[in-house]
Amino acid sequence: MTSIQSVELRVAVVTFPGSNCDHDCYRAAKEVLGAGSLADEGAAPGAALRPDRKGETGLAGAGEAHRAAVRSNGRGETYFVWHRERDLRDPDVVILPGGFSYGDYLRPGAIARFSPIMDAVRRFADDGGLVLGTCNGFQVLCEAGLLPGALVRNASLRFVSRWVRLRVENAATPFTTAYREGQVLRLPIAHGGGNYVADEATLDRLEADGRIVFRYCDADGRVTDAANPNGSMRGIAGIVNEAGNVLGLMPHPERAVEALLGSTDGVGVFESMRAHVLAGLAAAADAGREARATEPAGRP
Amino acid sequence: MNRYVVEVRITPREGLLDPEGKAVYNALRSLEFGEVQDVRVGRLVRVVLNASTPEEARTRADAMCRQLLANPVTEDYEIDLDTIS
């Protein structure tokens, strides 16, 4: 019988034309969620990290290469899903990465929202699946209406690329159980349009429901205007949807998962998702056992 | 079927901070255009479309704005319509 600890996750990283953090997300998911190990990829290190982008089916082809390269103990796998695909291939977690989908034309995320794969992402989210959108992924989620509000140009009108501090406002979401409430994280940001806006009623509701997950803060955890890198209302850096299974944030947890990169504070987001999925699988297994136990033992 | 040209003017919603407009305002003032009182920077989208009537063209353009061209959370829009003869 498979022990729950050894179950690996299936993680789908969606690539839009113009995504540029999809490989960071892939690597973070693979290393931290244990959905296949990078060390297992064999003789050509990094080969699977450089999918062939030629043509519309390029990434689907690369997916085949991943499957061949990754020795996992079952269904676990981290894989790219090209935006033109319509099937997410039964993931536990979907990641919408950062970047500049469609060149940010019209508004960041405005056109990516209509990519064929987004129907599947919406269904997955409606069914309670975990969806993580970082940076441009957050913008796409807002444009798609999966999260409320919108992200507009930074108040400074400048592209801001630097480290920021975030305060964990809610450590009870599927994305933050590895943290404690009030914990201060150090994560990088890199965006020109991360200024979160929503009407007052929406902001009040987010606040009352504990759906503001991260706020920009200083090193001591104080939320101040000086610590706010983009002008976001109420210092908001990340929010979840009403059901709590969709998180969007402007900072990049996937770029802070290795000490070599300057911080490992992003690991908790991935660990939390992993714990949430495994708990769900364990609960489902228990329910299955219970159902079998209460079945009539057979006719005499 | 007639051909229409629809011009959609999209501007940051009133009351929302418009950093781009503010920057242009400051630049104009520093060029000594002291009469400038307010600047808002938006976007112009020109769509050529076929429709039976001007009303239909306008209705379709409005649907385009709501679904894609403008973000109702942050932007207002106005539609101008012309017939192409």
Structure description:
- The complex is a heterodimer of chains A (300) and B (85).
- Chain A has helices at residues 22-32, 58-69, 117-126, 136-143, 200-208, 267-293, and strands at residues 10-15, 77-82, 93-96, 130-134, 150-152, 160-168, 184-191, 195-197, 212-217, 236-240, 246-249.
- Helices cover 26% and strands 20% of the residues of chain A.
- Chain A is globular and about 65 Å long.
- A 9-stranded mixed beta sheet of chain A has the order 2-1-3-4-11-10-9-6-7, with helices on both faces.
- Mean pLDDT of chain A is 85; it is low at 1-5 and 37-73.
- In chain A, α3 links the parallel β3 and β4 (130-134).
- Chain A has a domain at 9-154 and 239-288: Rossmann fold.
- Chain A is α/β, with parallel strands linked by helices.
- Chain A contains 6 helices and 11 strands.
- Chain B is of the alpha+beta class and 85 residues long.
- Chain B has a single domain, classed as Phosphoribosylformylglycinamidine synthase subunit PurS (Mth169, Chain: A).
- Chain B has helices at 19-30, 54-69, and strands at 2-12, 43-51, 75-84.
- Chain B has a 3-stranded antiparallel beta sheet with strand order 2-1-3, covered by helices on one side.
- The N and C termini of chain B lie close together (12 Å).
- The model of chain B has no long low-confidence stretch (mean pLDDT 93).
- At the A-B interface, loops of A face α1 of B.
What keywords describe this structure?
heterodimer; A: about 300 residues; alpha/beta; Rossmann fold; nine-stranded mixed beta sheet; 6 helices; about 25% helix; disordered N terminus; B: about 80 residues; alpha+beta; Mth169, Chain: A; three-stranded antiparallel beta sheet; 3 strands
